[in-house]
Amino acid sequence: FMSKILLNAPPTTDARSERQLAAALGYPLSWHVVRLAPDKPDVIYAGNPRKNVALWFNHEAARAAAAEWQEGKSCPYKGGHLLPRKPKFKKSEVVEVLYKKKWYPATVTKRKEVDGQYLYSVLYSKDQTTQEDIRESKIRQAPPDAAAFHLAATLGFPEGWRAVYGPKNRLQFYSPDNVHFKSKKAALDHLAALEEADDPPWRVDGHEFIGKQVKYVAQHKVSGTRTVEIVQTGTVTGWISEQDKDRQGEPGYVCEETGKPAALFHVEFQDDPSHPYRSQLIDFQDMEEHEVLDMLLNEQDDNETGEPPTKRTKLQQENGDDD
């Protein structure tokens, strides 16, 4: 009977005829047999031919594999047709995903099985975007330390930093040059110092604003219905010229509004232990030129401390009384 089918069955034309021929030849229900012409050899597939499954070019080898096949359990893909179907990656595993010819670090967030193959959803480390329904052929195991790089990236550290859990489940960090930091604060302080080192140094002279005082006013909400005005007097102690460059040759400061290099001024404020809102006081503030001009105190200002004038002071100012 089988010999008759092998000799007389017509060429297959679609997936249905492929499965019918496979079933007639005694193969598992999910298999396909593709017949191009009676005088050409059949091609036996362990599943859908369009999905890169295992295949054979002679029936003897195919029947040997079919004898050990377990429908719904055996893997149809090349090299795995005798093994139970198993996913290559698990949820929360750090992997690399092929996207537009480049590999990107990511974390598996979900896995599902569709038509005999596993599809994955991932979260990309660099920009925290997601992608769904990725085939296993587009995913590979991450290299050593990939999990540490991924964790550091999710915590906001630049590329090249690693984060690992140390004793007592405490985070520890390693810089790209392998400097070890035992806390996140220490690592962030190191980053801040590096960024500051890249900036051009503050000039301490060469501008009329140096040594001038400014009145800085901020609004602080102390309750749901009450807001207080906090006034501080600061001194311009340094500045960066629009001509200054950092270590990379970039402008020392670029105005966000114009997108062009601009001068920047550093204003420092003194601590006031007796201030009722001391916790809200700032130590310094960097300002653009127009901001300094708006806050600049002139030499004739009798209220250089920035505190509200008393009733007596007000009367003296109105009457011109200097006593």
Describe the structure.
- This protein is α+β, with helices and mostly antiparallel strands.
- 20% of the residues lie in helices and 27% in strands.
- The strands form 4 sheets. It has a 5-stranded antiparallel sheet with strand order 7-6-5-4-8, with helices on one face. Strands 12-13-14-15 form a 4-stranded antiparallel sheet, covered by helices on one side. A 3-stranded antiparallel sheet has the order 1-2-3.
- Strand 12 and strand 13 form a beta hairpin.
- 20% of the residues are buried.
- Residues 302-318 have low confidence and may be disordered.
Features:
single chain; 323 residues; alpha+beta; four-stranded antiparallel beta sheet; 20% helix; elongated
The counted number of beta strands is 15
Radius of gyration from CA coordinates: 36 Å
Task: Quickly give the structural class.
Answer: alpha+beta
Question: Total helix count?
Answer: 7
Helix content: 10-25%
| Largest pleated sheet | 5 strands, antiparallel
What fraction strand? 25-35%
Query: Residue-averaged pLDDT, rounded?
Result: 81
* H/E element order: HHEEEHEEEEEHEEEHEEEEHH
End-to-end span in angstroms? Answer: 126 Å
Order the strands across the largest sheet as they lie in space: 7-6-5-4-8
Oligomer: single chain
Low-confidence stretches: 302-318
Shape: elongated
